């Protein structure tokens, strides 16, 4: 470790040499990203975020809660930068898709990571149905964004009769998302978009069998916990909450959902991938009794009765890098022609 890094970021609790090297590299990438004039898709943005994701993907025993204050601050800022970049990336592709033909849904495969969403949604569907006695008919997705691929894939392939209510605080995101499904005769009748802060939604939350909470809704522990507490207060007893979290060094990319913070919910399972899949998946049920049970998952992400949570590897999912933008120069040229 360099002397300069040691001076700026003193040793964190129980951090070994490998972990210090990892943190140093992440901090160096952060400083380069923070100097960018814009986080819109470009060659420089693509390169730096690709480096960041590839650095954070390898399995690591690092505990971000034990990092020193300076590194904790960098992690918080980095998560927000990742969120901004991801939003701009989704807007970029949603704009292209919106002008791709009579029905943009037929052209979703132009998004470089569409196949990854297919596989990730399959995993989440497997986890969901492992804890359901019947398929959900009313679904809410909080933080759906301008390119609501999870909702679209679930509605198109898995929950084909369910109604999806997508919540996002950004009107421009909902406008782009609505444009994607408005020409589809099926999805336009089953997908609805609400421009509102989920903290202002109360009675409507009781209508949903399952609520999905996007990884970047609640950028830090306090904000995430506040949102989860709100959902616990207003969701129907017995309904399910699905969240995306992060584990190890991946927690520099996304906020961590600690099962202990899911007050009012019975944690059913936690899935920590150890390959290139970034997000962990947490599923919990709104309490109907006071006896929480925790289950583990097998390698396919299916529920297995048990009393502990342990990491599991999902080897069938390809690397999911939402910030690796592919051939961005070509895509930007296409967007310019469409605008």
From TrEMBL:
Entries under Gene3D superfamilies matching the protein: Vaccinia Virus protein VP39
One GO BP: nicotianamine biosynthetic process
Protein's UniProt keywords contain Protein biosynthesis: no
MF-aspect GO terms: nicotianamine synthase activity
Keywords: S-adenosyl-L-methionine, Transferase
Name of a matching Pfam family: NAS
Enzyme Commission number(s): 2.5.1.43
InterPro entries assigned to the protein according to its UniProt record, in alphabetical order: Nicotian_synth (IPR004298), SAM-dependent_MTases_sf (IPR029063)
Class in the EC hierarchy, top level: transferase
Reaction catalysed by this enzyme: 3 S-adenosyl-L-methionine = nicotianamine + 3 S-methyl-5'-thioadenosine + 3 H(+)
PANTHER family in alphabetical order: NICOTIANAMINE SYNTHASE 3
Similarity section: Belongs to the nicotianamine synthase (NAS)-like family.
Function in brief: Synthesizes nicotianamine, a polyamine which serves as a sensor for the physiological iron status within the plant, and/or might be involved in the transport of iron.
Descriptive protein name: Nicotianamine synthase
């Amino acid at each position: 470790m360099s002397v300069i890094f040691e001076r700026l970021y003193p040793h964190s609790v129980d951090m070994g040499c490998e972990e210090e090297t990892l943190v140093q590299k992440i901090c160096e990438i952060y400083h380069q990203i923070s100097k960018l004039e814009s986080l819109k898709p470009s060659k420089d943005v693509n390169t730096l975020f690709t480096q960041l994701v590839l650095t954070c993907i390898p399995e690591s025993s690092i505990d971000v809660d034990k990092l020193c204050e300076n590194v904790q601050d960098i992690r918080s800022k980095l998560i927000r930068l990742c969120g901004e970049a991801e939003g701009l990336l989704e807007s970029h592709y949603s704009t292209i898709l919106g002008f791709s033909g009579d029905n943009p849904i037929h052209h979703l495969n132009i998004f470089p990571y569409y196949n990854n969403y297919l596989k990730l949604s399959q995993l989440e569907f497997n986890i969901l149905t492992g804890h359901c006695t019947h398929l959900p008919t009313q679904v809410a997705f909080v933080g759906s964004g301008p390119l609501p691929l999870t909702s679209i894939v679930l509605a198109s392939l898995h929950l084909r009769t369910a109604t999806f209510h997508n919540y996002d605080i950004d009107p421009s995101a909902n406008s782009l998302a609505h444009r994607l499904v408005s020409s589809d005769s099926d999805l336009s009748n089953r997908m609805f978009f609400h421009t509102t802060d989920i903290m202002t939604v109360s009675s409507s939350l009781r209508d949903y069998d399952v609520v999905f909470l996007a990884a970047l809704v609640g950028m830090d522990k306090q904000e995430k916990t506040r949102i989860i507490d709100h959902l616990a207060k207003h969701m129907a007893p017995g309904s399910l909450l699905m969240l995306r979290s992060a584990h190890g060094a991946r927690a520099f990319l996304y906020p961590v959902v600690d099962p202990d913070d899911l007050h009012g919910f019975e944690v059913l399972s936690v899935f920590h991938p150890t390959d290139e899949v970034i997000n962990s998946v947490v599923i919990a049920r709104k309490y109907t009794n006071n006896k929480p049970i925790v289950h583990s998952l097998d390698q396919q992400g299916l529920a297995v009765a048990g009393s502990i949570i342990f990491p599991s590897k999902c080897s069938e999912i390809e690397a999911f890098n939402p910030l690796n933008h592919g051939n961005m120069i070509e895509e930007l040229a296409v967007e310019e022609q469409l605008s």
